[in-house]
């Protein structure tokens, strides 16, 4: 797959670069450039990212960072079985547990929420950092909802991290998940409160909390630059214009008849 000339491979994380040092220099550079493309495209073009990840995997399948990148690219494309296999491979190579939450979420994607819950209660969770533990809590709550256990999902999300006033990278997503669960349980007033709190914490727009809040408040936004909206306005105005024109046409013959009467009266005079 083509790679832009401005991508050198130097953009990758230093830890990944260190892993690639086990490869011949030219090969390491090729793999690095493909990994950069995966990172660039994974949010906006998941399919493209997946393609580059497969190239990197073909070149260096024994590098943990490559297996991890391939896992995330597959995950972004909802290829959960493939993603889980890659994450497991990366974990075997590194011995770390940081991929545990996303592995559990793959189990959810495969329709196995019970397995995800088992993983949420495993000893590996205690080895995760704070961000990883919050992520695991989000996955567990999602698994509860998959099983239609809404109240249990709400309880799962109730934690010191949720109650804290400090804003962390995970705060907006945690508050959003809690608000969404409350709404699913019919607790609309509380849901609105937590969507508002999610908006306060969502500094980079990682959620659509503001839209959900506006929806609860009954606010509708119209994009003035939306051509389809303009077309709808024109089309909705057209019948009214046609109706007025028809009324004018109906009146016109009457006026012409009146003029003829006037002309005849003048001739008689």
How would you describe this protein?
This protein has helices at residues 14-20, 25-41, 46-59, 64-76, 80-94, 100-109, 113-120, 130-146, 150-157, 160-163, 171-184, 188-201, 209-216, 227-268. The termini are far apart. The model is unreliable at 233-238 and 248-269 (pLDDT under 50). It is an all-alpha fold. Helix 6 (100-109) packs antiparallel against helix 7 (113-120) and helix 12 (188-201) packs antiparallel against helix 13 (209-216). The chain has 14 helices and no strands.
SSE topology:
Blueprint: H1 14-20, H2 25-41, H3 46-59, H4 64-76, H5 80-94, H6 100-109, H7 113-120, H8 130-146, H9 150-157, H10 160-163, H11 171-184, H12 188-201, H13 209-216, H14 227-268
Helix pairs in contact: 2-3, 3-4, 4-5, 5-6, 6-7, 6-8, 7-8, 8-9, 9-11, 11-12, 12-13
Alpha plus pi helix count = 14
Structural class: mainly alpha
Distance between the termini: 95 Å
Oligomeric state as shown: single chain
Taken in chain order, the helices and strands follow as HHHHHHHHHHHHHH
Query: What's the rounded overall pLDDT mean?
Result: 87
State which percent range the strand residues make up: under 5%
How many beta-strand elements?
0
For the CA atoms, what is the radius of gyration?
30 Å
Instruction: Report the major sheet.
Output: none
Anisotropy-based shape: globular
Helical fraction: over 70%
Unreliably modeled segments? 233-238, 248-269
